[in-house]
């Protein structure tokens, strides 16, 4: 299959249909990593087969776990109660979650591991994780610039720490907790606001005890070292961060109604849906049920007259990856949508504030950029957006998908570069959107 160098979205007639969200990326990483740390066979159903997750699957295999693909989304990890010395460099590709959680987990074993990633991952800060790991007695060697990959970690028996985070980050929290499994004493992580709790939930599902107590507006999570992880089956729910794209398209393309089935409804992940409702979005959730220890449901979005809102900054952790698609939908709202307290957006696969501002402005949308946020001024009451731009994505999957969705409702076509990167989190995005009636193609 040849991968086109650009993709173009053109204004579509009404979108309609029922689709299934791909497996959650956060839970897929954790299922592979915890499966490799545990003893026994972890059967995973619904694993996301995106490039980030495939990199983590290769990583845990290199670290000594048995990894088999049994069928689409069905994977088996055989853990031997810990990581073994790998033969070569662990390349985590584009995945911040993959590398940060793996660094934390590896630090607890008597091995020396060099971690690396692609050009985007090499630009992202790593000291936020290696700093606390060094405090726990892991040894570090940076190959080049400090705070940037590649880095070599020598692990072993660690000392528990009491770590207070300044930003709510599930990646930092998870890395410290996974290191804490092999630390003497009780490791504690306090966060200013609650971040996604998938690691805590999965540690419990694997038989460990994790304590959680409120601490100000956030939580203090405690984890006693030396516990045993026992393999357990994992059913991966649908990813709300991916479901956001077809749902967004339905909200902005006139006449549309789209249902995404099996979407995880963990409240630490659904800030976008709350914000869209405040904007006047017609979103309904049906068939609520549980799968893999998470509440899931089918979400239907219908075309809606949206209005601009001020997004509460304390909601940021529960929708941090969703601000790009929120900004794209805000372009069709009546009035200003104000997004603040999201400086972390600048440290993702790209500087997402800068790239969304540039892309939307190129499409004729007024955007005011700030150090830690931005304001998008919607098209007007008739919701019209010009489009007609070629957007630079810097290889960021969410920047690419957000602009393609915008292009489905803009007057003129919108083109993005590096569309192959969409497979990082949402393989099959283009086919799924075409199935709903979207006009997205390589010409
Ligand atoms: O723990 C996770 O699975 C994730 C945490 C978030 O990052 P931070 O912890 O850096 O906020 C998010 O942006 C990322 O896509 C996935
Ligand atoms: C930020 C993201 O992922 P990661 O940090 O794992 O690269 C994302 O998927 O939007």
UniProtKB/TrEMBL annotation:
It is an enzyme of class 2 (transferase). It comes from the Bacteria. Catalyzes the transfer of the enolpyruvyl moiety of phosphoenolpyruvate (PEP) to the 5-hydroxyl of shikimate-3-phosphate (S3P) to produce enolpyruvyl shikimate-3-phosphate and inorganic phosphate. CDD domains: EPSP_synthase. One of its GO terms (biological process) is amino acid biosynthetic process. The gene is aroA. This is 3-phosphoshikimate 1-carboxyvinyltransferase. Phosphoenolpyruvate binds at residues 25, 96, 124, 171, 352, 398. The active site is at residue 321. InterPro entries: Enolpyruvate_Tfrase_dom (IPR001986), Enolpyruvate_Tfrase_sf (IPR036968), EPSP_synthase (IPR006264), EPSP_synthase_CS (IPR023193), RNA3'P_cycl/enolpyr_Trfase_a/b (IPR013792). Its EC number is 2.5.1.19. Monomer. It comes from Brevundimonas basaltis.
